[in-house]
């Protein structure tokens, strides 16, 4: 009997197209069907490292459609599963002239106990959609902004899997080591919880990676990269991590047109057809993507009605050499520069890392970058690098030039210098394990500019780290770190902002609601019993 190993996942959608992603247990023909409505689309699987995947593209749909579907593998119906108590999975296209709801979050540990990681915001969200009937407001898009899996902080089921396939003294210890390990991480994250599996089958989902999808502090600095590539186990680790991300996450972010022009997708399919397994081609691509980041783009942008969503890769595309340092390489920044323009009601820029941090943290990171760059001498530079890695000082603030370049783009768009100014420009981010809203106060723009953070979905900070971040969140703590940054000749930030809502440290999911020229956001947290309750609300454009 045929079966799905993972999926189905409803991924990229537009007003007339949809993408269904699956992993199967063998090479096969996968079809997505609804006989009553004349839906029948299919794709052959491709194979990489003994695993089989299909990306089914569906076209000619109606805007705002809600079409129940089944997945058929070589003539056998494998989804919905027999005896399922869940509502039928639906293909949900967007209605360009209507409002748009984008639910988002980051940092989800799975599996694990409530005592370890608290209640799962994503599972609670799925439960509400499943049981709420017509009264529930569904998101049009689910955006997961980093740390979908934790490759370096393993749970017991993952450790048992690793123990079953390699010797106890093999490196790395207590971390994923290769592509096969990553495939099991994704299975634990997206298969074993039936409510999350159903959610991913029926809500269009987009993603971007952060460090734990590969390894803590991934690409924090040139020194970090040099250290990692000196390790004999790193090549299989990084190729496995990037290659699996390309299959499990990146392919579904692309529109059908973008996928059709993706040379790696074409090469992998051709290698799978000709040799039976495209693993070697995928590994070569992944290694090159790490060593030559300018050759691969993980960022993407989609326009939905009056909203433009730009999702920025702030991890793999970093410029890190002995002489230069940037959050994005030159090609990637030029791409971002071209995507930032007016003429939309709302501009959303998603980055796994918050662009606007609490002031104390921002100034500490900008000071540390200067220190690690030699502003206080060679000995201090070595100390600065140690502090950077120990304290995770590697957000946008730690890339001063990149921060200023993005600020220039945002201010230009917000002032109407690149077409009519949007009503709102919002950064959507996660990573830091608490949620908040920050609003830009200077310089003046026609657009309301804000930073919306929602983190974690399921991985709360422990007490001492909460205390430290509460302290950093206070406006009073920014002064001493700004003084250190000034001593290091770091210029004053080109924009000013203030924290207006939060911080909230509970597991959470946020929903940004866009309608006309109005934008608001709602944060919700899971309660005992698996329900969601309000954690905070804010009117962005009011």
UniProtKB/TrEMBL annotation:
Residues covered by the DUF7800 domain: 1-91
Residue ranges of every copy of the PhoD-like phosphatase metallophosphatase domain listed in the record: 138-225
PANTHER family cross-referenced by the UniProt entry: METALLOPHOSPHATASE BINDING DOMAIN PROTEIN, PHOD-LIKE PHOSPHATASE METALLOPHOSPHATASE DOMAIN-CONTAINING PROTEIN
Designated name of the protein: Alkaline phosphatase family protein
């Amino acid at each position: 009997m045929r079966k799905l190993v993972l999926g189905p996942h409803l991924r990229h959608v537009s007003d007339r197209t949809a993408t269904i992603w699956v992993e199967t247990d063998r090479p096969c023909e996968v079809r997505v069907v609804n006989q009553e409505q004349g839906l029948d689309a299919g794709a052959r699987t491709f194979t990489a490292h003994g695993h089989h995947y299909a990306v089914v593209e569906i076209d000619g749909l109606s805007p705002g459609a809600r079409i129940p579907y089944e997945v058929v593998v070589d003539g056998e119906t494998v989804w919905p599963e027999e005896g399922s108590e869940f509502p039928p999975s639906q293909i949900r296209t967007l209605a360009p002239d209507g409002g748009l709801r984008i639910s988002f979050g980051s940092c989800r540990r799975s599996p694990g106990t409530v005592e370890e990681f608290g209640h799962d915001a994503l599972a609670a969200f799925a439960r509400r959609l499943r049981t709420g009937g017509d009264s529930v407001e569904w998101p049009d898009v689910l955006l997961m902004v980093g740390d979908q899996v934790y490759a370096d902080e393993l749970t017991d089921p993952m450790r048992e899997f690793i123990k079953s396939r390699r010797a106890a003294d093999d490196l790395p210890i207590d971390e994923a080591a290769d592509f096969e390990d990553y495939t099991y991480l994704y299975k634990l994250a997206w298969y074993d919880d039936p409510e999350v599996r159903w959610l991913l089958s029926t809500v269009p989902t987009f993603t971007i990676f952060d460090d734990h999808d590969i390894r803590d502090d991934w690409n924090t600095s040139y020194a970090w990269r040099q250290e990692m590539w000196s390790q004999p186990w790193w090549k299989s680790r990084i190729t496995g991590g990037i290659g699996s991300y390309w299959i499990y996450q990146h392919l579904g972010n692309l529109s059908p047109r973008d996928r059709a022009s993706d040379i790696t997708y074409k090469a992998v399919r051709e290698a799978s057809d000709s040799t039976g397994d495209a693993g070697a081609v995928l590994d070569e691509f992944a290694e090159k993507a790490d060593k030559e980041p300018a050759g691969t783009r993980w960022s993407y942008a989609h326009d939905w009605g009056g909203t433009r969503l730009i999702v920025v890769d702030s991890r793999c595309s970093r410029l890190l050499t002995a002489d230069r340092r940037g959050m994005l390489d030159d090609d990637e920044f030029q791409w971002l520069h071209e995507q930032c323009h007016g003429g939309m009601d709302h501009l959303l820029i998603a980055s796994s890392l918050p662009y606007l941090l609490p002031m104390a943290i921002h100034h500490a990171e900008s000071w540390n970058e200067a220190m690690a760059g030699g502003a206080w001498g060679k000995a201090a530079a070595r100390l600065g690098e140690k502090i950077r890695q120990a304290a995770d000082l590697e957000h946008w603030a730690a890339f001063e030039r990149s921060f200023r370049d993005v600020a220039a783009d945002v201010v230009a768009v917000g002032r109407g210098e690149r077409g009519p100014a949007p009503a709102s420009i919002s950064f959507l981010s996660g990573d830091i394990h608490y949620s908040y809203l920050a609003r830009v106060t200077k310089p003046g723009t026609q657009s309301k500019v804000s930073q919306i953070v929602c983190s974690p979905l399921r991985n709360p900070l422990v007490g001492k780290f909460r205390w430290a971040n509460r302290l950093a969140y206070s406006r009073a703590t920014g002064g001493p770190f700004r003084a250190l940054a000034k001593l290091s000749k770091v210029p004053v930030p080109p924009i000013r902002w203030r924290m207006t809502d939060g911080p909230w440290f509970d597991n959470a999911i946020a929903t940004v609601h866009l309608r006309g020229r109005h934008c608001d956001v709602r944060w919700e947290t899971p309660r005992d019993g698996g329900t969601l309750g309000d954690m905070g609300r804010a009117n962005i454009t009011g």
